[in-house]
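Lecture notes, part 5. Sequence design as translation. It can be helpful to think of inverse folding as translation between two languages: the language of shapes and the language of residues. The source text, in structure tokens, appears below.
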């Protein structure tokens, strides 16, 4: 451990040293890093200090627990983490080959949500990547497009969100704002 840098030196108090030692006992330097070996005297407790088991927090003395996976961030039209700029641009411009189409016209919300989830699951199972989901524009009877508004929400909900990498409005020849390109994550083998 290098001394002199503010963030790299161990805490000063005796209890702090014991906690530091407990926390660092399994830490090994990265192979590419050149560090001076830490001498046992540097982190060892003074002989007069006695620690009770209750003085070291259980979270430090126990084996490190696995953290739950971080929540997957919501995606919106043309904005998604985990996709490179070139792929996002190709999706937006309709340049990716469409491997599956789903038309939700005339379905109720419940039926559309179920059909969308089934369609995405089967497309993922078949190894497809780019899908076209047609929602319609909802111009009938002064509507705002119920399915047009709901499909992006459904794509951000389980089980769809675990499969969807990105989505964006389709190009005019594929339905414009009444359709979505949906890019699925690559299927992991194993």
């Amino acid at each position: 451990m290098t001394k002199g840098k503010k963030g790299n030196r161990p805490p000063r108090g005796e209890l702090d040293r014991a906690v530091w030692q407990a926390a660092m006992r399994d830490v090994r330097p990265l192979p590419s890093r050149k560090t001076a070996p830490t001498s046992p005297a540097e982190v060892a407790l003074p002989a007069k200090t006695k620690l009770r088991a209750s003085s070291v927090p259980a979270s430090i003395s126990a084996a490190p627990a696995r953290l739950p996976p971080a929540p997957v961030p919501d995606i919106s039209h043309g904005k998604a983490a985990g996709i490179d700029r070139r792929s996002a641009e190709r999706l937006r411009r309709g340049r990716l080959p469409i491997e599956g189409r789903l038309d939700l016209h005339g379905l109720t919300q419940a039926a559309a949500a179920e059909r969308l989830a089934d369609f995405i699951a089967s497309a993922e199972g078949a190894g497809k990547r780019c899908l076209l989901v047609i929602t319609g524009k909802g111009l009938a009877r002064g509507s705002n497009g119920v399915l047009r508004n709901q499909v992006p929400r459904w794509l951000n909900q389980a089980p769809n969100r675990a499969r969807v990498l990105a989505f964006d409005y389709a190009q005019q020849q594929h339905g414009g704002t009444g359709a979505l390109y949906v890019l699925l994550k690559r299927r992991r083998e194993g």
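The translated text above is only one of many valid answers, since several sequences can fold into similar shapes. The chain has six helices and four strands.
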